[in-house]
Amino acid sequence: MFMSSHSYLRGLPAFWRLWPLAVALLLGACGQTTVETPSDRPATADTAKTAPRPSPPLLIDSEATDRTRALYRNLHRISGERVLFGHQDALAYGVTWVNEPGRSDVKDVTGSHPAVYGWELGNLALGAEENLDGVNFAQMQEWIRAGHERGAVITLGWHMSNPVTGGDAWDTRPAVGDILPGGEAHGTFVEYLDTLVAFNEGLTATDERGREYAIPVIFRPWHEHNGNWFWWGREHTGEAEYIQLWRFTVEYLRDERGIDNFIYAYSPDRSRIDLDNFREEYLYAYPGDDYVDIIGLDNYWDLGHPGNEASAEEQAEGFRRSLEATVALARAKNKLPALTEGGYETVPDPTFWTETFLAGLNANEKTRQIAYALVWRNANREKEDRDHYYAPYAGQVSAEDFVDFYRHPLTLFEHGLPDLYRAP
Ligand code: BMA
Asked: What is the CA radius of gyration of the chain?
């Protein structure tokens, strides 16, 4: 309903800045059924008259580029209607192939690439040419550009090396206190962040008039911080320190370095959240509404994780409840809810996609508001000498069921995407 962004309206006389409000009030007074209502109420004429209208979702970056704002608004609009399917490293390799132009395991099975591409920055800060899974960074930039130009969504995560020890993200020797401003390793940390600034400078595309622009990116730093497996995780840093780490990251990238194409996603891990106390545990070390755009959740736990001893029924209930709670929190904050990571390693269940994954996402009005759901990478079997994949490949036991998942009206893959980068 509110089309304009505040920065776009800056400098206009007061009347013109207030017109969206005037239009909304007028429509509200007319009892229009199309007026946006809080998502947990049915949009009837009655509630439309009385319900408080949510203000338009704004990014934490008030200078965000038009396309970045458009993406965020469009994902909000789609939320509740369709869930975008995402896959990590989709274009770089699959279970039986590496680096074949135009190929992805998801496309091999369904005919379409995923709607969301996840990419990984681990080892970027070390000056390496390839990330920690052997993906060449220059090629990654090309794949990001190609995916964006086909209309898909890009998200970046970072298993950042430990700036204090030089070890990897799983080297849990204390680091956060030392990398914050005033700490001994602060300079090194800033250099690490600068490698992302440089990488991001290469994430450009060209519009129809030949002008270069920055590709919008969902940036998801410091994920699963409520677990204890990364150096920024619980037990290896305190709550206040983690919040400072997050805020410094945003302020440095956005305010110091002027990055305006990032949408910031927060994503704790489900395995360390008690569903009966979701809100409080999810918000452990939450950096604040002024620092987060996406209320995300990483959930492998309820999807057949080997450590979860709950029955299949209990896990299904856990999955549904975790999505409902994520959506409720996102709505209360006027943020976007997403399943930022998840899946079932090697998908051994032939009906996993429809009877577990879709059943949870499509359970009710709340769960359907998850904007996108991304499953983790399909490691190349020969190269990594193991079975570590989360999407099916052609012939895999869940491949047929995945086609039903793809065809379901709730799911959205790259083929079916509307223009997400034009202002709604
Ligand atoms: C993990 C595993 C690792 C990988 C890392 C970063 O979950 O897939 O093999 O190196 O993510 O992509």
From this structure: 21
